[in-house]
Amino acid sequence: MGIVSPAWMWNNFRYSILIIFIIAAIVTPTTDILNMCIFAAPMILLYLVSIGVAWLVHPNRRNRGKVG
Q: Which residues does 21 contact at the CB level (< 8 Å), separation at least 6?
């Protein structure tokens, strides 16, 4: 859709980590740091996957592949 670029997502990676850990702290039922990290790990992985997907479907990358 071209809403965000992979470069923008990568440049703001540290802020997204902060937000992910804040969300994980709110969602975690206990005050244990290990549980918070268990909740945050899949969200961080999904964020990294989304950077990869955004890189694959970025408009500049699609335009370079066109012939003609």
A: 36, 40
Element (H, E) at 40: helix 33-56
Q: What does the angle CA 27 – CA 29 – CA 34 come to, to the nearest 5 degrees? A: 90
Q: What is the pLDDT of residue 35?
A: 92
> From its phi and psi, is residue 2 left (phi > 0), alpha (psi between -120 and 50) or beta?
left
- For residue 57, give both structure tokens: 């479907």
pTM: 0.78
List, for residues 34-63, the tens digit of each pLDDT value: 999 999 999 999 999 999 988 888 766 656
C-alpha span between 29 and 1 (Å, rounded): 35
